[in-house]
Every structure is written in structure tokens, then in C-alpha cells.
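Appendix B, record 7
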Amino acid sequence: MNKKKITRIRGFRYALCLFFGLLFLTSHAQQKTITGKVTDQSGQQLPGVTVVVKGTTIGTVTNTDGAFSLSIPQNAETLQFSFVGMRTQDVPIGNLSNHGRRIHRY
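C-alpha cells (predicted):
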């Protein structure tokens, strides 16, 4: 291979690495992490509650202490909380106080 071709290949590799690096940073910058704890009406922590960004497949399940942590898009507006034997609740993210949430029975 001649030097001109090698230089062109190296330049292409550099540009490709730069492109994917910027793509990663852009997609990562558009995320935020939300954390919280889910309890019932009496304040009992609820493990196993499904927490989903409404209209997406982005979600998690609360741990044994009723706590959750979820990376969500910056433009996410509503979290949906569901649990067996409880009413599913849609909660605007801006209305979550300290990201705690009480789930009510049917």
C-alpha cells in the first residue's frame, strides 16, 4: 500500500471513532436518572412494583426496600406505577415530591 492510501485509511478510522464517540456522548447527555421509594397508604415499603416511563419499554422494578432507580429520557413526562392488587397510577414526573410515591389499593 502506498502512503497516501494508508493516510486516508487512518483519517477514516479517526473520523469514525470521533463520530461514534460523539454519538455516545449525545445519547448519554439526553438521559437523566430518577430515584425514589414506593410505599402503600400506611407507609409500608412495596417491593416488586413496576415503574415504567409511560409509552416506552423503559422501566424497572422496586427492590426489597421499595426503592427504584431509572435512567429516563430528558423529555419523559409520566411514570406509570403498577403492582398486583393495586390500582395502576400515572404520575407526571414534575409532580413527584422527592420522587416518593404511594400506591393505593383497588
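Remarks on this record: Strands lie at 31-39, 50-53, 59-61, 67-73, 78-82, 89-92, 101-102. The longest helix spans residues 3-29.
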